[in-house]
Design brief:
This protein has 488 residues and is an alpha/beta fold. The chain folds into two domains: 139 residues, Rossmann fold (3-Layer(aba) Sandwich); 289 residues, Dihydrodipicolinate Reductase, domain 2. Helix content is 35%, strand content 22%. It contains 15 helices and 19 strands. Strands 18-15-14-13-7-12-11-8-19 form a nine-stranded mixed β-sheet, sandwiched between helices. A hairpin with a 3-residue loop joins strand 14 and strand 15. The longest helix is centred in the middle third of the chain and has 19 residues. It is globular. The N and C termini lie far apart (53 Å). Bound molecules: 6-O-phosphono-beta-D-glucopyranose (BG6). The site of 6-O-phosphono-beta-D-glucopyranose (BG6) has 4 residues, from loops. The site of 6-O-phosphono-beta-D-glucopyranose has 4 residues, from loops.
Length: 488
């Protein structure tokens, strides 16, 4: 099979941080179809060779084992090409068309990794140049819009010229090995299904914590904030993976139909819950990696008066028969105490206690996404040091133990990173791990009351860099009698 992958935004941050390394890994693993071209598109005036040199120099920032040797890069570089384009000029799409017609590849992937404001224009121009035929697949990066109306406008423009089957809305969290394993664990094993419900589960916590600040993306981030950057997409996709009913088969639409139902079942916000169950914060100066770091307002590109949130904690519920009454907590933020992304499913305690157990110890399933991926099942087991007290055998003491499935150790070298997995899926035309337009709209619909109410309230609460966010986040969960995992 032959393919052409056109990378709009070919010199941008995403291209060199994520996409090129992922394409190289796929090449190295031998999973990228041999007969392929990767065409970087940007405004700079570069030759193919200069583009290859630029990409090679960027690879120096890639972590050791994933960096190509000179010999490997030379082979990979033969796939790389470059086309200078002004994305507003129809004549430049005609040049792109000429380039693509040289080969008429079986599959043409148009990866739109540009500023979101250009998405509609690029898609319309692709169609105007007649490049939207059945062999074309278009990949759209997030964020797709900044609210429900703008998301609908983009989707309407896209759906006018492309069939939904040609549109790959990417959410790289769906490509993470742990998320795929969450699906496998739930729908490939019978073990958890009977207890995956309100009768057995006390609460669910989703944490996506980053220790980094906004880095060089201050200007973008300041227009976006944690709700749009992480909650509307990544966190809500995790909610779907945890909460959805078993799909009738593994086809993309069967999966997406079930995810959509979860998003539709999320409890709508009320004035009361907006006040009590939605906390947002913004980091101030603090400590990260043992060093003083500046506050958000002092980051380059950020408005010194900014009201943008860098932390969000929410409490919600999936209002259906399986989940009614089970609190679902979502928390994400920048400059938190550690890089830690995980989903915790906390089970209910035993109905009657005959053992002594540490306070608060319950069964818990943890799906670790970051920094390592794996599954942990927390149980209680008989401690081996039972003492006799006053000549009597004391009530047996239980101690917490863990069953660990470390995917790094178990699957090591065979594992495929999120972008690598998703890029290969696009080339192969598999839509399972991509987001359908109605899902995306439903997610925007749910976050919209937060956007509206935050536009005019007192602003985000401050928290020091290197902590777990504003104390209101712990107070929110404590009102239900629970605590975040690092406080347990
Ligand atoms: C991106 C966000 O989608 O996800 C970034 O725009 C964030 O702000 C990143 O840092 C986190 O991804 P990961 O895979 O490092 O958890």
């Amino acid at each position: 099979m032959s393919f052409d992958l056109v990378l709009f935004g070919g010199t941008g941050d995403l291209a060199w941080r994520k996409l090129m390394p992922a394409l190289f890994q796929a090449f190295r693993h031998g999973s990228l179809p041999k007969d392929g071209r990767i065409v970087g598109v940007a405004r700079d005036d570069l030759s193919d060779d200069q583009y290859r040199e630029l990409i090679q120099s960027r690879f120096n920032a890639v972590e050791g084992a994933k960096r190509p040797s000179a010999e490997e890069f030379e082979k990979f570089a033969s796939l790389l090409h470059y086309l200078r384009m002004d994305l507003s000029k129809p004549a430049d799409y005609a040049r792109l068309s000429d380039l693509l017609k040289q080969r008429n590849a079986d599959t043409v992937v148009m990866y739109v990794a540009t500023a979101p404001a250009l998405f509609t224009q690029v898609v319309e121009q692709i169609a105007a140049a007649g490049l939207n035929g059945p062999s074309t697949r278009v990949v759209l990066e997030k964020p797709l819009g900044h609210d429900l109306a703008s998301n609908r406008a983009i989707n309407a423009a896209v759906c006018k010229v492309l069939d939904e089957k040609q549109v790959f809305r990417i959410d790289h969290y769906l490509g993470k090995p742990s998320v795929q394993n969450l699906f496998a664990m739930r729908f490939g094993n019978a073990l958890f299904e009977p207890i995956w419900r309100r009768e057995h589960i006390a609460n669910i916590q989703i944490t996506i914590a980053e220790d980094l600040g906004v880095e060089k993306r201050g200007a973008f981030y300041d227009q976006t904030g944690a709700l749009r950057d992480m909650v509307q997409n990544h966190a809500l996709q995790l909610v779907c993976a945890i909460g959805m009913e078993p799909p009738i088969n593994s086809h993309a639409d069967a999966i997406r139909d079930e995810k959509l139902k979860v998003l539709r079942a999320l409890k709508p916000w009320t004035p009361e819950t907006l006040g009590l169950h939605a906390i947002r914060g913004q980091y101030t100066a603090g400590t990260a990696y043992g060093e003083r770091v500046p506050g958000y307002k002092d980051e380059p590109g950020v408005d010194p008066e900014s009201r943008t949130e860098t932390f969000v904690a929410l409490r919600t519920e999936i209002a259906n028969w399986r989940w009614a009454g089970v609190p679902l907590y979502i928390r994400t933020g920048k400059r938190l105490a550690s890089r830690d992304a995980r989903i915790e499913v906390n089970f209910r305690p035993t109905p009657h206690a005959i053992y002594r157990a540490p306070a608060g110890a319950v069964n818990k399933l943890v799906i670790n996404l970051q920094p390592r991926d794996g599954l942990e099942l927390h149980m209680l087991a008989q401690a081996q040091d039972n003492r006799r007290s006053n000549g009597h055998q004391s009530a047996a003491q239980l101690a917490p133990v863990q069953l660990d499935l470390d995917f790094d150790k178990r699957f090591g070298a065979e594992r495929v990173g999120a972008y690598e997995r998703l890029l290969l899926d696009v080339i192969d035309g598999r839509l399972n791990l991509f987001v359908r337009s109605d899902e995306q709209e439903e997610a925007w619909r749910w976050v919209e009351p937060l956007i509206d109410s935050w536009a005019s309230d007192g602003g985000p609460r401050p928290y020091a860099a290197g902590t777990w966010g504003p104390s209101a986040s712990s107070a929110m969960i404590a009102r239900d009698g629970f605590s975040w995992s690092e406080e347990q």
